[in-house]
Specification:
- With about 80 residues, this protein is mostly helical.
- It has 4 helices and no strands.
- It has one domain.
- The chain starts with 6 loop residues before the first helix and ends in a 9-residue tail after the last helix.
């Protein structure tokens, strides 16, 4: 729904000096980068995946993707 005010949008409207993500400064701060793609977020998602697999006693690991987690059918080419 694009309700999170990220630097990509704030920069577009002249409300910030850069569109880069303040933490990694390596990519534009879009919602996908902010919550999913940034390497700083990967440890969090690995831990969430581990918890799901342990709690559900699943022999095959559940693969969380942006599309399944966000209930989106947008093709972002993100795994």
């Amino acid at each position: 729904m694009h309700i999170v005010p990220n630097n990509e949008k704030l920069f577009k409207y002249g409300m910030t000096e850069s569109s880069l993500y303040d933490i990694c400064k390596s990519s534009t701060e879009s919602n996908i980068h902010l919550f999913w793609k940034c390497s700083n977020e990967q440890p969090f998602w690995c831990e969430i995946t581990k918890i799901f697999n342990e709690r559900l006693n699943i022999s095959d690991e559940i693969a969380l993707t942006y599309q399944t987690f966000s209930f989106s059918n947008v093709d972002t080419n993100i795994k």
